[in-house]
Target: HTH cro/C1-type domain-containing protein
Amino acid sequence: MIDKKQLQLLVGKRIKLLREQKNIPQQDLAAKCNIEKSNFSRLEAGGTNPTIYTLYKIAENLDVSVSELTKID
Amino acid sequence: MIDKKQLQLLVGKRIKLLREQKNIPQQDLAAKCNIEKSNFSRLEAGGTNPTIYTLYKIAENLDVSVSELTKID
DNA sequence: TACTTTTTTATCATTTATGATAACCAATAC
DNA sequence: GTATTGGTTATCATAAATGATAAAAAAGTA
Model:
C-alpha cells in the first residue's frame, strides 16, 4: 500500500513516459484533452490526484486504454 | 470517446462485478477502504467521478491492480 | 410475520481537482 | 540581442469528490 502522494507521482511519471514516447509536447496533449497546460504540468509532476475522467481523456489522446495508462508499480 | 457519465457508470459496474465475484458486501469493502458505505454505493452506481487514489484503495482491497480494475469497455 | 443484513438515497460540510490567468525559467533559433 | 518553444510555478475561483450522518428501501432468513 503506497500512499497517495507516491501514487500521484507514479501516475504522473507514467503519463510523461507515454507522452514522450510519442513525442507529443505537454502543451499539445493538454490542449487535445482540454486541460490547461499549467494544470497538466502539475498533474505530470504528481501534484494532484486525478479523476478517472481526466485519466480517460489523456489515455484516449495517447491512443492507449485507461488500463494501459494505469500500469504503474 | 464516451462521456463522463458513461465512464462513471462503467467504472462503477466494474467495481461491483469484481466485488460480487469475491462475495464481499459493499459495506465491508467500503470499510476496508475507509470510504463511507453511502459514498461507496454512490460510486458503484456511477454517481461520482472517482480519483485514482480512491480507485487504488478499492483495487488493493479487491486484490487486483488498478490496471485490472480499470479494464472497462 | 418480524428480524437482520445489505444497499440506497438525501443532505450538508469540507476538502480538493480542475479551470483560469499570469508570470517566470530554460533552451533553441533567428 | 529577441523571438519562439516547451515547461514550470503561483494564485484564485469554481465545481465536484469525499466525509459524515440519518433515514429508508430491499433483500435475505428464521
